Amino acid sequence: MLPSRKTRTIHIRGLPVGGTAPIAVQSMAATRTQDLAATKRQVRILEAAGADLIRIAVDSPADVQALAHIRGETDARLSVDLQENYRLAESVAPLVDKIRYNPGHLHHHEKTKSVRDKVRFLVDIAARHGCALRIGVNAGSIAPEFAERFGSDHVGAIAQCALDHCAMVDELGFVDYLVSIKDSDPFLVIEANRRFAEQRPDVPIHLGVTEAGMPPEGIIKTRVAFEQLIARGIGDTIRVSLTLPFDDKGKEIVVGREILSDIANGRFRSVPPNFFSGLNIIACPSCSRVENERFIELADEVRRMTAYAKEHAVTIAVMGCRVNGPGETDDADLGLWCGPNHVHLKRGPEELGAFTYSEILPRLKHELDAVIAQRSGAPADTHGSS
User: How many CA atoms lie within 13 A of 41 on its CB side?
Assistant: First the structure.
């Protein structure tokens, strides 16, 4: 029996979220929004899988036009991810039921305007069109002011960012909002959401482990976070973020409902304390900014190629786009972010160059061997690398 949740209930076009409402399960179209055939197919796949809400990314006026076509052909509840351009809210609000903004992106544009003014703009738009709002904090794109204020306390920075934005929205008298605090590390997700919920038990929370990666590892990471939080009464809606072929995207909904059923029936999967201490591969679940679907195959090839290093505590991040990729690979030992024809390779924050999709695996192996050798004090095995 799950503990009762203390959050208030908000509504997303007839869908109650929070309070005593069932935990909602949602997902996101992984395709380029302007690829109408592919994105409409994604929506149909997610609808058929039973998604309560489907998120679509919008980053340009052309994406807004595509969204209008999609809206005209489905009655599914749609959420929009504004990505880097918050002003597009005015164009997309008539087409969707929920708007998600990332506090870490608001400082990029119109720097003469305060963050508070930008939040007021978003709240006014949401209120005018009857949209719910999600304050979506991502640990990989935290606003600079919070990073400066909290230094090495990363959990404190992301939790406080969410708290401060809730206070701004509260002051504007808007109540139909919820919060998400995500990271690729399930333990950081647990701690940050726990801290937030202690201070704001009234605010509905959307749970997810971003860039969880491929099954089964991505499912395990997500399950760990969900079990620990939902069993504490924290979490009103969830998303399982997996790196999957586009036609398999409905699996995110199926897995999400399986995890909820297991938790409700007391079927918990414990993991040993050192479960994530070996090789850790992070991979994003794809979105409209991915410019080459080859990225999904590459993530799986990276996993298979690096299996020999599974006992080594090395983190490899495989990101699908040039927008989030450069920043969200900084904390990985080795990071890859993918463009149309080349994959950019990093070692920590250091750029190592761009390689074709056929060149990247040998070079990645070379760098992985070098990292392992450096930590063990042994010479790197460069056999077969270029």
Answer: 13
Question: For residue 101, what are the contacts with CB-CB under 8 A and spacing of at least 6?
Answer: 82, 86, 89, 122, 133, 134, 135, 136
∠ CA 133-136-141, nearest 5°, is 150
Angle between helix 115-129 and 154-171 (nearest 10): 60
> How far apart, in whole angstroms, are the C-alpha atoms of residue 344 and residue 323?
12
Where do the domains of the chain lie? 10-264, 280-376
Contacts of 206 (CB under 8 A, 6+ apart): 26, 134, 136, 178, 179, 180, 235, 236, 237, 238, 239
Phi and psi of 331, rounded to 5°?
A: -85, -5
Question: Which of 122, 113, 200 shows the shortest CA–CA distance to 161?
Answer: 200
Distance CA 186, CA 212 (A): 9
pTM: 0.85
Structure-derived torsion over alpha carbons of residues 7, 11, 16, 18, reported in degrees to the nearest 10 = -10
Single-letter residue type at 326:
P
> What's domain 10-264's superfamily in CATH?
Dihydropteroate synthase-like (3.20.20.20)
Top CATH class, 280-376: alpha beta
The 10s digit of each residue's pLDDT in 274-317 is: 777 889 898 888 777 778 888 889 999 999 999 999 999 999 99
Element (H, E) at 167: helix 154-171
